[in-house]
């Protein structure tokens, strides 16, 4: 095996450790001496290094691996899966990753808005990449043998455990015990709101992501029926990560210092290395989709756009969040693959360093033009170290094949010497975000019905308050950040020849073209006032390929 960057000669044994949270962790094996420089290393042929093998946490909702550990938070993959790239059966079969989605059932009696149906409700259905339709052997079909929401009771009377051949322990609930109440608003995303969930039986918390669902065709209605959905909402129960997202921390604390960036980058890259090692591309890496827990552990979230790709295939669909989107996605001509996450990683590091993504001075579509059509490189702040600058530059290579892989990046000088212990993670996060620990961090839930002003994106997006006319008007004018659309809906479409495999759909209605000056509207509370967060709010996407194609079924 060729040598691989081995300045640090300490070889870690592949060991299993159980951390305080019941997450099993495995360390990387890194024998081998290292070449002199990162470039020497890149020139060596990448070895087929053993990937860290994650294992499921006790609540079965996170995967943790590597050191520092990185978890893949249970996500809305099933509910927001790519419309034109359905999740592959391979990833389902492998069982390496599991995205458990517990959907809300109105049940026989509606519980009202502050008391969502318990995830253990007898009519709940859970979607999983492993076993979306399993039933109990005794014929009880109303319960689902999938992991409980985080913190659910697991007493013998309430659950049955079984260990599958791949080592994943599954829990089967008897579906009648717990009560999850919807609490304060944690945040808003493209498809809905995320609330704190509290289990009054156990005292446990989870995050409840309420996804709005449009079912305007028969297939959609059938889908919803099968999910036992009502009221146009799908509830996804997720592990609650109390630190919130990197995006929120940036809003609250401003740009991160380099040691924090280094520590978080190392963990993100570790997660990408795991995902990419399994040919899975996340496609929406950005601060808002990366959660930080109070122990400084990073969790990748929101796999709604993740996609397993075949060795031979690349993707053509236009997905992602514009400011973090790789040029090849924007141009949408030759397809794209795993390196799109590396580009987005570079953008996310810039976001951490400046609290804004690259090209944030441009409106959404103008930024897309900048990414796709120019040869410009985003500005890299001067105050960063030369290693950090080099790391970012390598991620932001316009030619995807020139970008290092996640596995290679783990040995980049910017992050390779990062102390990889839990103590370091805790210390760095505690020092950087003290209020995460003193109980004052979480701002009060925003009352969107009463907000009085938002700020305009044109010009100085952060400072210009403008009146809000009505919720309807506001909802019609949101900007896109996460955007699953068909290839032919790319805003670049009219400027380039249509790709053969494009669906002929009309331009996406939620994409304001340049000059339209629409108003993105994500007011966030900052120092007691609402300010615009132009990088977050998105239009509620309703796909519209002709004829109500199956891929336009939901959302
Ligand atoms: N599991 C969680 N624990 C704690 N907070 C969460 C959790 N999931 C989401 N949040 C908070 O809610 C916000 C909205 O999350 P959501 O996943 O709906 O959208 P997003 O990822 O921010 O944006 P998009 O949908 O465009 O990708 C996040 O930015 C985060 O602050």
TrEMBL record:
Main EC class the enzyme belongs to: transferase
Location of region: Disordered: 1-172
UniProt keyword Kinase present: yes
Ranges of residues in domain Protein kinase: 180-415
Matches recorded under Gene3D superfamilies: Transferase(Phosphotransferase) domain 1
Entry-linked SUPFAM superfamilies: Protein kinase-like (PK-like)
Record's catalysed reaction(s): L-seryl-[protein] + ATP = O-phospho-L-seryl-[protein] + ADP + H(+); L-threonyl-[protein] + ATP = O-phospho-L-threonyl-[protein] + ADP + H(+)
PROSITE patterns hit by this protein: PROTEIN_KINASE_ATP (PS00107), PROTEIN_KINASE_DOM (PS50011)
InterPro entries for the chain: Kinase-like_dom_sf, MAP_kinase_kinase_kinase, Prot_kinase_dom, Protein_kinase_ATP_BS
UniProt family annotation: Belongs to the protein kinase superfamily. STE Ser/Thr protein kinase family. MAP kinase kinase kinase subfamily.
Designated name of the protein: mitogen-activated protein kinase kinase kinase
Record organism: Flemingia macrophylla
């Amino acid at each position: 095996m060729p040598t691989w960057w081995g300045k640090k000669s300490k070889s870690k044994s592949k060991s299993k450790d159980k951390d305080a949270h019941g997450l099993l962790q495995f360390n990387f094996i890194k024998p081998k001496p290292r070449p002199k420089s990162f470039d020497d290393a890149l020139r060596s042929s990448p070895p087929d290094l053993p990937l860290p093998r994650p294992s499921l946490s006790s609540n079965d909702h996170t995967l943790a691996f590597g050191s520092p550990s990185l978890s893949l938070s249970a996500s809305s993959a099933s509910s927001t899966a790519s419309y034109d790239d359905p999740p592959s059966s391979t990833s389902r079969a492998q069982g390496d990753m599991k995205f458990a989605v517990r959907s809300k059932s109105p049940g026989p009696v509606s519980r009202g808005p502050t008391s969502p149906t318990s995830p253990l409700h007898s009519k709940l259905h859970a979607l999983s990449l492993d076993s979306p339709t399993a039933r109990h052997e005794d014929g009880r079909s109303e319960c689902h043998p999938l992991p409980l929401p985080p913190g659910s009771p697991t007493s013998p009377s309430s659950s049955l455990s079984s260990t599958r051949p791949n080592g994943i322990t599954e829990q089967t609930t008897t579906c009648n015990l717990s009560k999850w109440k919807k609490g304060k608003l944690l945040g808003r995303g493209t498809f809905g709101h995320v609330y704190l969930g509290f289990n009054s039986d156990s005292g446990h918390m989870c995050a409840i992501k309420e996804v709005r669902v449009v079912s305007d065709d028969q297939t959609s209605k059938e889908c919803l029926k099968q999910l036992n959905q009502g009221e146009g909402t799908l509830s996804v129960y997720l592990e609650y990560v109390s630190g919130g997202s990197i995006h929120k921390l940036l809003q609250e604390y401003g740009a991160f210092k380099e040691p924090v960036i280094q520590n978080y980058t190392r963990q993100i890259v570790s997660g990408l290395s795991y995902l990419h090692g399994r040919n899975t591309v996340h496609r929406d890496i950005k601060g808002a989709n990366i959660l930080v827990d109070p122990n400084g552990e990073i969790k990748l979230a929101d796999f709604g756009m993740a996609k397993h790709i075949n060795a031979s295939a690349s993707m053509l669909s236009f997905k992602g969040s514009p400011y973090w989107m790789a040029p090849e996605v924007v141009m949408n001509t030759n397809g794209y693959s795993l390196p799109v996450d590396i580009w987005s990683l570079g953008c996310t590091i810039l976001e951490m360093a400046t609290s804004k993504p690259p090209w944030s001075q441009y409106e959404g579509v103008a930024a897309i033009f900048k990414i796709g059509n120019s040869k410009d490189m985003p500005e890299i702040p001067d105050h960063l170290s030369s290693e950090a600058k080099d790391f970012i530059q390598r991620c932001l290579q316009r030619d995807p094949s020139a970008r290092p892989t996640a596995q290679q990046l783990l040995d980049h000088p910017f992050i390779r010497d990062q102390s990889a212990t839990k103590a370091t993670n805790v210390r760095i996060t505690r020092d950087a975000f003290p209020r995460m620990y003193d109980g004052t961090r979480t701002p009060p839930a925003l009352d969107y019905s009463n907000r009085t002003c938002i700020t305009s994106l044109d010009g100085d997006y952060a400072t210009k308050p403008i009146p809000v006319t009505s919720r309807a008007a506001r909802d019609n004018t949101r900007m896109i950040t996460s955007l699953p659309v068909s290839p032919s809906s790319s805003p670049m479409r009219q400027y380039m020849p249509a790709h053969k495999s494009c669906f002929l759909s009309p331009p996406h209605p939620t994409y304001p073209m340049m000059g339209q000056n629409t108003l993105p509207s994500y007011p966030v509370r900052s120092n007691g006032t609402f300010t615009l967060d132009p990088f977050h709010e998105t239009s509620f996407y309703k796909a519209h390929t002709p004829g109500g194609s199956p891929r336009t079924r939901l959302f």
